[in-house]
Structures are given as structure tokens and as C-alpha cells.
Design goal:
By secondary structure, this protein is α/β, with parallel strands linked by helices. It is about 40% helix and about 15% strand.
């Protein structure tokens, strides 16, 4: 997977997209083969330290009980009010959210808080697993802009989606997974010209919501 830009991972429902993403964060362990991050076998790395380097935002927001500030401090215990406000502003929320009950936020607000919680550890890579599947169009646009913005400042993003229109909006690179195999990997601009027949059939038929 490329070390820069936004790489979008697409494929039919049940093809293994989320499993592949979880392998990249060591939430799943391969039964065979090796997953490497910048040359290092993930099996040789401390999982907690590694997950600070490779952050992950899940399909459904996962706020913890307590305030937004307390949610951010789960990831970075030394984070003060100024740092918390800055983290929230980075994801398009007002610093005034720090005292809000994290479990009483809207879906889009909760997803952005979860992204802020991931970003306060200053990860080297961010993994996004269908992060816009349960939010409204406004929140979807905001999250897409955040993903593109991270890539623009040198934080690569690996983004799983079922939405081919979203792929076209976001992708610098595209990975296509069909029946558990990566059948295409390349630059988004060359997708149509380089795609195999199986990939063309998938692109023509679209993908179902997962």
C-alpha cells in the first residue's frame, strides 16, 4: 500500500475489505503470511505502541462514557484543555464540545470526536473503516475533507468504502478486493484503463451497502 495520499479500498460486500483493514492494525492476526509496516513484521511490534502509530476509526462511532475531554484523554492522558480544543477544531468541531457528554452527540459529531481521539496520538497512518456509512451528507463531506486534509499534510489514509462515488472523490490510489484477494492495486487515475475484466464488472455493477 502506498506511503502517501488517500488509498481507497473497495470491493463487493463480504469480499474482505474490513478484514484486510483490521490486519493492518493488528486487530486480526494472519493465519499465514506476514503483514509489515515500513519493513517491520507486525507480529514483532508491541500492539499498543503500534496502534498509536497506525490509528483506526471504525464504521460506527465508539465514544466512551464521560465527557468529550475524557474521551480524548483516554488516548492522550496528559492532554489539557487547550490541546483538547485544538484537537476538536482540527476535526471541525468547536472547542466548546470538551464538556459535552460524548454519548449524547449526533452520529456525525461522535464520529469526529472519535477521529480527534485517534489524531491526538499523532499517528503516522490513519485507517478509516466505512466511517461515513451511518452519518448524514453534511458529516460525510466533512469527514471526506478531513481525510483528504490528513493526506495533504503527509499522513497517509487507508479508507474502506462501499460507495464508488466516494472512491472517485477521494482516491489517489485504489485497491480492489474480490473474494478475499486483492485483484487490483494502482493509481486512481489509471483505474479504468488498467482494470481487469473482473474489476470492470465490479465497477459497472456497483457495490452493496455493508
Amino acid at each position: 500500500m502506498p506511503a502517501g495520499g488517500v488509498t481507497v479500498l473497495v470491493g463487493p460486500s463480504g469480499s474482505g475489505k474490513s478484514t484486510l483493514l483490521r490486519l493492518c492494525n493488528r486487530l486480526e492476526v494472519p493465519e499465514a503470511g506476514v503483514v509489515r509496516f515500513r519493513g517491520d513484521d507486525l507480529a514483532s511490534l508491541d500492539p499498543l505502541h503500534f496502534r498509536r502509530r497506525v490509528g483506526m476509526v471504525f464504521q460506527r462511532p465508539t465514544p466512551f462514557a464521560g465527557t468529550v475531554r475524557e474521551n480524548l484523554q483516554v488516548a492522550e492522558p496528559a492532554l489539557g484543555d487547550a490541546g483538547a480544543a485544538q484537537a476538536l477544531e482540527r476535526v471541525g468541531l468547536s472547542g466548546a464540545f470538551v464538556d459535552r457528554d460524548a454519548r449524547r452527540l449526533s452520529g456525525g459529531e461522535a464520529q469526529r470526536v472519535c477521529l480527534a481521539r485517534t489524531l491526538v496520538t499523532e499517528p503516522e497512518v490513519v485507517l478509516m473503516d466505512e466511517v461515513t456509512s451511518s452519518v448524514d451528507p453534511s458529516a460525510t463531506r466533512a469527514l471526506e475533507e478531513l481525510g483528504s486534509g490528513l493526506a495533504a499534510v503527509g499522513v497517509p489514509v487507508l479508507w474502506v468504502t462501499h460507495d464508488l462515488a466516494q472512491m472517485h472523490r477521494l482516491a489517489d490510489h485504489v485497491l480492489v478486493v474480490i473474494e478475499g484477494r486483492v485483484v487490483h492495486a494502482g493509481e486512481a487515475a489509471a483505474l479504468e484503463s488498467e482494470a481487469s475484466e473482473a474489476v470492470r464488472e465490479f465497477l459497472a455493477g456497483g457495490a452493496t451497502h455493508e
